[in-house]
Design goal:
The complex is a heterotrimer of chains A (about 675), B (about 170) and C (about 290).
Chain A (H helix, E strand, L loop, with lengths): L34 E7 L5 E7 L2 E2 L30 E2 L5 E7 L2 H7 L4 E6 L6 H6 L11 E8 L9 E12 L8 E7 L2 E6 L4 H12 L6 E5 L14 H13 L3 E4 L2 H7 L3 E12 L5 E13 L6 H10 L9 E10 L13 H19 L3 H7 L6 E2 L5 E2 L3 H10 L2 H7 L3 E8 L6 E9 L2 E6 L8 H13 L6 E3 L18 H24 L4 H6 L2 E8 L6 E11 L5 E11 L6 H21 L30 E5 L15 H18 L5 E2 L3 H4 L2
Parallel strand pairs in A: 1-12, 8-26, 10-11, 14-15, 20-21, 24-25
Antiparallel strand pairs in A: 1-5, 2-4, 2-6, 3-5, 7-15, 8-13, 9-10, 9-12, 13-14, 16-17, 18-23, 19-20, 19-22, 23-24
Chain B lengths: L3 E7 L2 E7 L5 H8 L18 E4 L2 E4 L12 E3 L12 H8 L9 H14 L5 H7 L11 H26 L1
Helix pairs in contact in B: 2-5
Chain C lengths: L6 E3 L4 H11 L3 E4 L5 H6 L7 E4 L9 E4 L2 E5 L4 H6 L1 H6 L1 H7 L5 H4 L4 H6 L7 H7 L3 E6 L2 E6 H4 E3 L2 E2 L6 E8 L5 E9 L6 E11 L5 E9 L6 E2 L1 H7 L6 H14 L10 H25 L1
Parallel strand pairs in C: 1-3, 2-3
Antiparallel strand pairs in C: 4-5, 5-10, 6-7, 6-10, 8-9, 11-12, 12-13, 13-14
Helix pairs in contact in C: 10-11, 11-12
The chains are: A alpha+beta (about 675), B alpha+beta (about 170), C alpha+beta (about 290).
């Protein structure tokens, strides 16, 4: 690496540097001669562009976004977003032009030099409008981006209990504290890109496709990544612009997102509605479930929406053994920023739908919700009619009820909620790892890239276990396509399992080599030699795991929810690092509370974003949150290192437990997150 | 465009500079001084990633012009350790895992530094109130609160130790 | 987010500041702590060719009792108010309000003068000073004039300040022994602006009847409001649940909230009603303890 003054050690994950302010975030990278990019964005939800004068715009850079990253679906070609809007703008915040200045102040000043004439059009803002009005993109028959179904349709049974309800999760901005950002530097035929990301390979694949680059002429390197939560997994228009501009001007180009841009233009999560009908017996057994899921895709099929509809549909029976199931999932286009993954990415929505219905059934039958859940689970493995494989659920749930002290809590207060879920991690299609042993040190790279979860801890531990070398000589480096041929990304609760398995496989390959060379293996033999192994460890099996949450609340007379207890009990397979596991769970629980009580991304009838700050968006403060009670179970998975998925569990389990607790305390049926004081005030 | 001449102290060092009046303190620190431990996370004075100490008090350096710091003392995250010796709060944040992605960490530590300068034994409630202008999206704050408590304890032990040395 | 260019002046004397403001007229903007102004400049929701930083003017940063008034210099920060021993002991309502503004870091820079003269209907200090029958000293070319706090903010972001004038001092009548008040604020999210907030200050006589009531309202109208009918209603009465609840209804009738991001107008009225009852009861209890 010639262009950087970062030393090799600066390229490793090392959380201890952050307390000294010595991190290496993308905005900390100042290459000589850097141009700063500012992006002019659409002020309208929908308009015809009559003319654009000035800046880099779509008349010059005609590239389209590539569909890469989590849940990418390249089949949605009609609705793929252009890098710059041309002809029409389709959401507030859509890029229209980019300007480049010698510093960030000048770049902002230059926005005023671009003139755009718009002819505003009536936008399609809500999912209902999307179904009612003509398509926002010409070339489509309707605003339905995808429609898929899971299970097979069945005739409504003649059940004694039939319940139907419509449930919804408002859109949520992911809001990592570090916004998105990129530095692109082109020289001598090579495009070097530094980016805050969950996946250097997604970014590379995206830029290669979008700009039609030779794969060997681009290298994408991860900087310290200040949180991501799904939103830094894939390509964004700004990355294409910055890369293009660097090639055009022959200078490094930096773009750092502002928080306003994040709210208007980074793919938010959730924004899903489900109409759910269940058929049940008087003893609490649910015999059938029908569902109609609508996903608010936003303006283009670039995000995750075309994948989410079917994914949510698949998970709609949750961990329960329900015989009949049929769910239709549709993603619809609206004039809003494209939807993307946010911690959970479909899992919290599916769980919200089924858990809300199970609680409704308990109320209808005047049964304890725990007993209704018990009536619907098995001590045998089960494959749901929607296609999800579930391990025997009953033994875990029974221990969860004990561990979370549910029976004691319901005696103490009325406002108690308990939730149960099965986590389906995105372990497919596997992950890559490269391990280099040289000069007595072990260096590790992964295809999927940590953004705060502390992958270096499990990397060190697994290398230590497999190769017998001390942890302090093992270093995990940040993502770098120059060091790994291929790779996936860090999302979907997959890293400890998929990346962990890749590390184990790479270690075993190296160990075998040492044995072949020396007739036997010892750490000393290993460290006296040089080895370099890359593996792409495929994962095809299902690795689902269970979790349960409990919440207790009180509601003040102004409708403010006071959380008394927020507890989790999750099966993590095997905790590779207990402190990191607890940290992941606590942080996720905060996000679960945020979604339930505070967070939303709101548009008015003109499609204008009215959520205008990170505070408006509802990111919880220390004052908003309780201390968490976290317990873990360790039932090893079938992977060699025993881990199971974890990261998304709290955002699945907390909203359902918490909303139930609020429902019980308020006596009001609750159907939507966030639940606001306005709904609860007496 | 007229430039303003300023003189300020940053991490104990006197600095003379000529700056555009519109330049925010955070950008001066990061870009002119190379002190990139101070971060920017929002535009609306909410997140506190940009927290620094101004004459000992925690403030948001993104909501301050550098010219407003003329004649004043600014301390950033890079300025609270003595040489290689980390401040007790820095050690506490490592030991109690008061961070994940690390982006809010400088601000959290500096706000806590200010809190402990006024209150050596903060309660959990006092800590949560004190950091209510600093957002963390990763930890759920619990480990941060524990870090501040532990940092307070380490600081007291250290100060006690120093006193004993002086007595001797 | 980066402000547009401007010329910057940091006068050390009041006269100098007034001269600059007079010279540049509407093109100049006063900045004290900058906690409201700088975000606006950064987002380029406002821009001014001239920014006059008054924070270096000497002698505008104090909290002291002087004769019949508690006097607070306009450049006193909100955290200085929060931490002041005098205020902690004798003017609890001021501390209560200050401690609920934004967050501790913003309060370390934000000043009471800025909080009032920004004219934002969701800023907290105006309602409190109004409830306390406070007065504001304004300094201009012709010298000083004193106005009633209740008349100072005339509309959203509009005040009585004329060209070349600066809010220099906040004056609150010294409390007598038998009075008490409180400030209650309902926020959507912690750290946020309020959905509604109320300042109530009651003085009681020997028979425990309300001798004087002051009520200021935040975020429920185009400007901070004084609930005068509510005040008149309470005066001469002992407070009990039905009095408090009737007064709250009257106070709500004096409010004029609009539906926005923070909630519907009806919701804001509901909130105001409940916090009014609580604020009246709490203030009365505090007055009785004295």
């Amino acid at each position: 690496m010639t262009v950087l003054n970062w030393k090799e050690g600066d390229l490793a994950y090392d959380s201890s540097v952050f307390v000294k302010g010595k991190g290496h975030f993308v905005d900390d990278l100042n290459l000589p001669g850097t141009l700063f990019m500012s992006v002019l964005r659409s002020p309208y939800a929908r308009a015809r562009i009559l003319s654009i004068k000035g800046g880099l715009n779509g008349s010059e850079l005609k590239a389209k976004m590539a569909s890469v990253g989590e849940g990418a679906d390249p089949s949605q070609s009609v609705s793929i977003q252009p890098v710059f809007a041309t002809g029409y703008v389709n959401y507030v915040g859509e890029p229209v032009a980019a300007v480049f200045g010698d510093d960030r102040y000048k770049a902002t000043d230059l926005l005023e030099t671009v003139e755009v004439d718009y002819e505003p059009m009536k936008p399609v803002v809500t999912m209902d409008d999307a179904l009612k009005f003509p398509p926002i993109h010409s070339g489509m028959k309707s605003n339905i981006l995808v429609q898929s179904s899971r299970g097979s349709d069945f005739k409504d049974p003649d059940s004694p209990i039939v319940l139907e309800d419509t449930l919804e999760n408002e859109r949520v901005a992911t809001n990592p504290i570090e916004p998105r950002g990129i530095v692109a530097s082109y020289s001598d035929g090579m495009l070097n890109v530094w980016v805050s990301t969950q996946s250097v390979h997604s970014i590379k694949d995206g830029l290669v496709e979008s700009l039609d680059l030779r794969p060997d002429a681009i290298r994408v390197m991860q900087t310290d990544t200040g949180g991501a939560f799904g939103s830094k997994g894939g390509l964004y228009p700004e990355y294409v612009m910055a890369s293009y501009a660097s090639m055009k001007y022959g200078r490094p180009v930096k773009w750092i997102e502002t928080r306003r841009e994040h709210l208007s233009s980074t793919n938010p999560g959730r924004g899903v509605r489900g109409k759910v009908k269940i058929f049940a017996e008087r003893d609490g057994r649910i015999t059938g479930l029908k569902g109609d899921v609508l996903v608010d895709a936003g303006a283009y099929g670039t995000g995750i929406a075309s994948f989410s509809a079917g994914f949510i549909a698949m998970m709609m029976t949750g961990p329960y053994s329900i015989e009949n199931g049929y769910v239709i999932g549709r993603s619809v286009l609206t004039n809003k920023v494209p939807q993307g993954p946010y911690r959970g990415a479909g899992r919290p929505e599916a769980s919200f739908f089924i858990e809300r219905m199970v609680d409704l059934l308990a109320d209808e039958l005047k049964m304890d919700p725990v007993d209704v859940r018990l009536a619907n689970m098995s001590d045998k493995a089960f494959t749901s009619p929607l296609g999800m494989k579930i391990e025997p659920a009953k033994p875990f749930f029974e221990s969860a009820v004990r561990e979370l002290e549910y029976r004691r809590e319901v005696k103490l207060t009325n406002g108690v909620g308990l939730s149960f879920f099965v986590l389906v991690p995105a372990v497919y299609p596997g992950e890559s790892a490269r391990i280099i042993v040289k000069d007595g040190m072990v260096k590790v790279w992964l295809g999927g890239n940590s953004h705060g979860q502390g992958h270096e801890n499990f990397a060190r531990k697994l290398v230590n276990e497999e190769l017998g070398v001390p942890e302090n000589i093992v270093t995990l480096f940040r993502g770098d396509t120059g060091m790994t041929l291929d790779g996936v990304g860090s999302w979907g609760s997959r890293s400890a399992i998929a990346a962990g398995a890749a590390i184990v496989a790479a270690c075993r390959k190296i160990k075998k080599k040492v044995e072949e060379e020396n007739g036997n293996y010892s750490p000393e033999l290993l460290l006296s030699g040089s080895y370099d192994e890359f593996v792409y460890e495929e994962q095809k099996m299902s690795l689902n795991s269970f979790g349960a949450n409990l919440a207790t609340v009180e509601i003040g007379k102004l409708g403010n929810v006071k959380i008394k207890k927020c507890a989790a009990y999750y099966d993590v397979g095997r905790a590779l690092n207990r402190d990191m596991v607890i940290g992941q769970i606590q942080g996720g629980m905060a996000q679960g509370i945020g979604q339930t009580l505070h967070e939303g991304l709101y548009y008015n009838e003109d499609g204008q974003l009215i959520t205008s700050s990170i505070s408006d968006a509802g990111v919880p403060l220390a004052e908003d949150l309780p201390n968490f009670t976290v317990k873990i179970a360790e039932h090893r998975s079938s992977l060699p290192h025993g881990a199971k998925g974890l990261g998304e569990s709290p955002t699945i389990g907390v909203p359902t437990a918490l909303i139930r607790a609020i429902e019980k305390a308020s006596g009001k049926r609750l159907r939507k997150t966030p639940v606001t004081p306005e709904e609860l005030i007496q | 465009m007229s430039m303003s001449k300023i003189k300020l102290t940053i991490n104990g060092k006197e600095i003379d500079a000529e700056v555009e009046p519109r330049k925010l303190l955070v950008h001066f620190l990061r870009e002119d001084m190379g002190l990139t431990g101070t971060h920017v996370g929002c535009d609306t004075s909410n997140c506190g990633a940009c927290t620094v100490l101004l004459n000992g008090k925690a403030v948001k350096s993104c909501t301050m012009l550098v010219v407003q710091a003329d004649g004043r003392e600014v301390t950033t995250i890079e300025g609270i350790s003595s040489g290689d010796e980390m401040h007790p709060l820095q050690r506490a944040f490592i030991q109690k895992h008061g961070l994940q992605c690390g982006y809010c960490t400088s601000g959290m530590i500096l706000t806590s530094f200010w809190l402990l300068s006024k209150n050596k034994n903060p309660t959990e409630e006092e800590i949560r109130k004190a950091i209510s202008g600093n957002l963390c999206r990763c930890t759920g704050y619990q480990s941060i609160v524990e870090s501040v408590k532990y940092g307070a304890q380490l600081l007291k032990e250290e100060q006690k130790g120093e006193q004993e040395i002086r007595v001797r | 987010m980066h402000p547009s260019s401007f010329e910057y002046f940091a006068p050390k004397r009041m006269e100098e500041a007034i001269d600059l403001l007079t010279k540049f007229g509407e093109e100049a903007k006063i900045m004290a702590g900058g906690q409201s102004l700088i975000p606006l400049l950064k987002l380029r929701m406002a821009s001014f060719p001239y920014v006059i930083d008054i924070s270096r003017i000497q002698g505008l940063d104090y909290i002291e009792e002087k004769g019949k008034f508690l006097e607070i210099g306009a450049l006193t920060t909100l955290s200085e108010i929060e931490d002041s021993e005098l205020i902690k002991e004798r003017y609890r309502i001021l501390r209560e309000a200050a401690a609920q503004i934004a967050d501790p870091l913003v309060r370390n820079r934000g000043t009471i003068g800025g909080n009032i003269s920004h004219g934002d209907p969701s800023n907290d200090m105006p309602a409190v000073i109004m409830a306390l029958d406070g007065k504001l000293e304004i300094t201009g070319k012709q010298g000083k004039r004193v106005v009633e706090a209740s008349s100072f903010i005339t509309d959203s972001f509009t005040t009585l300040l004329q060209e070349g004038e600066i809010l220099s001092k906040i004056m609150v009548p010294v409390f007598d022994g038998s009075s008490g008040g409180c400030y209650i604020k309902q926020k959507k999210n912690a750290g946020d602006f309020s959905v509604a907030a109320i300042a109530v200050h009651l003085s009681i006589d020997k028979e425990e009847k309300v001798r004087r009531a002051g009520i200021g309202l935040t975020s429920v109208g185009p400007r901070p409001l004084r609930a005068e009918k509510g005040e008149r209603f309470l005066e001469g009465k002992r407070i009990n649940d039905s009095v408090a609840s009737e007064a709250a209804n009257i106070i709500v009738s004096e409010s004029d909230p609009t539906s926005d991001f923070y909630g519907s107008a009806d919701y804001k009225k509901k909130v105001l009603n409940k916090i009014a009852v609580e604020a009246i009861n709490t203030s009365y209890e505090r007055a009785m303890v004295r």
